[in-house]
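Narrative of accomplishments. A recurring question from our advisory board has been how the design workflow behaves on a single, concrete structure rather than in aggregate. To address it, we present the structure tokens for one chain from the evaluation set, followed by the sequence designed for it. No filtering or post-editing was applied between the two.
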């Protein structure tokens, strides 16, 4: 305002000391200066767009269950490292119409996860939401059938705003359609190949797995309507397609992407490395099998039926459970330290050559 008043006074003073013709002629530069000063003084401040530093972007796919309410209207919304939304913060990208890609097709796949340390951020958040409990001896496996009708993604050529310090991810894609997920929880030794055999034995029936006391099943569906009343037991893509009808596509999968220049480091926790997963070992009467171990720390779980096996070590391998060579074990769960190479011998003691064949499963994880 002071600038405008000063400009007006300057023009008035110039006019007062001149004739009408001279004032009109000499006034032009002053009038132009006054107009320029007025425009500069009232112009709104331009928004400061952020130029992100160079850096690799990491994408994290997450099932939509743990992010209820998120859809394509949230594209560009920003999240912390553990994918918690940052409220009252502007979206990272300038508002643009999202890009839509048609995709239609049923896909069936298995995602195997072990403990929270192996879940990426999205899965951690999802399982917390559904009340998952974690113990060091538990495994989690997801069997999913998913039909994606449309992928809606950001136009990442749009300008970006400076993100708050806590922001690590932004919502980059929303996949809409329908999904059916079976989440199976069980002990380490009951998962992997053991679970796959159980599915095969029951011809892919979730009901067959549910009847086993070794597992807990959680079933989730998005964008589906059970028209048969038996849809909960569907496991194959064909069964799901027959027993369910899909309605309006809903978000089934989200893709979060790291903000350029922001690093995402997953917490490093000790994860047991599966070195042996043999669910169907058969040892005839009077025979044995040996398993070789390198130096290290191992968790060993063995189940045998109908009578059990005797077990013994060849080499130094102190364990938290002492093995008695005269005893037949139906179930062994022990942690052993092998100082050097060692051999675990599994023996089916003979009953004059007429004994039953022993059927066993052996699950070994390396702790370090």
């Amino acid at each position: 305002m002071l600038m405008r008043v000063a400009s007006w006074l300057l023009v008035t003073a110039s006019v007062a000391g001149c004739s009408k013709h001279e004032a009109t002629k000499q006034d032009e530069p002053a009038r132009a200066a006054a107009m320029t000063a007025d425009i500069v003084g009232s112009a709104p401040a331009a928004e400061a767009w952020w130029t992100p530093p160079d850096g690799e972007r990491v994408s994290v796919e997450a099932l939509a269950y743990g992010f209820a309410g998120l859809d394509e209207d949230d594209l560009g919304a920003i999240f912390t490292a553990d994918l918690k939304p940052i409220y009252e913060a502007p979206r990272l990208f300038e508002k643009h119409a999202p890009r839509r890609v048609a995709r239609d097709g049923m896909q069936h796949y298995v995602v195997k996860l072990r403990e929270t340390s192996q879940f990426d951020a999205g899965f951690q958040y999802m399982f917390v939401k559904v009340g998952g409990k974690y113990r060091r001896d538990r495994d989690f496996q997801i069997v999913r059938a998913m039909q994606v009708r449309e992928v809606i993604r950001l136009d990442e050529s749009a300008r970006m705003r400076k993100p708050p310090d806590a922001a690590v991810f932004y919502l980059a894609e929303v996949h809409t359609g329908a999904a059916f997920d079976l989440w199976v929880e069980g002990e380490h030794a009951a998962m992997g190949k053991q679970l796959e055999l159980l599915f095969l034995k029951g011809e892919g029936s979730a009901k067959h797995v549910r009847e086993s006391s070794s597992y807990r099943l959680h079933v989730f569906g998005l964008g589906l309507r059970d028209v048969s009343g038996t849809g909960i037991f569907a496991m194959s893509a064909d069964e799901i397609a027959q027993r369910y009808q899909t309605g309006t596509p809903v978000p089934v999968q989200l893709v979060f992407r790291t903000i350029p220049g922001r690093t995402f480091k997953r917490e490093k926790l000790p994860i047991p490395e599966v070195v042996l997963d043999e669910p169907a070992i058969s040892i005839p009467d009077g025979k044995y099998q040996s398993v070789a171990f390198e130096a290290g720390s191992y968790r060993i779980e063995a189940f045998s039926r109908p009578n059990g096996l005797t077990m013994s070590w060849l080499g130094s391998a102190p364990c938290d459970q002492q093995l008695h060579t005269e005893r037949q074990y139906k179930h062994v769960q022990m942690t052993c330290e092998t100082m050097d190479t060692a051999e675990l011998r599994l023996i089916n003691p003979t009953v004059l050559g007429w004994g039953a064949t022993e059927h066993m499963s052996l699950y070994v994880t390396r702790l370090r």
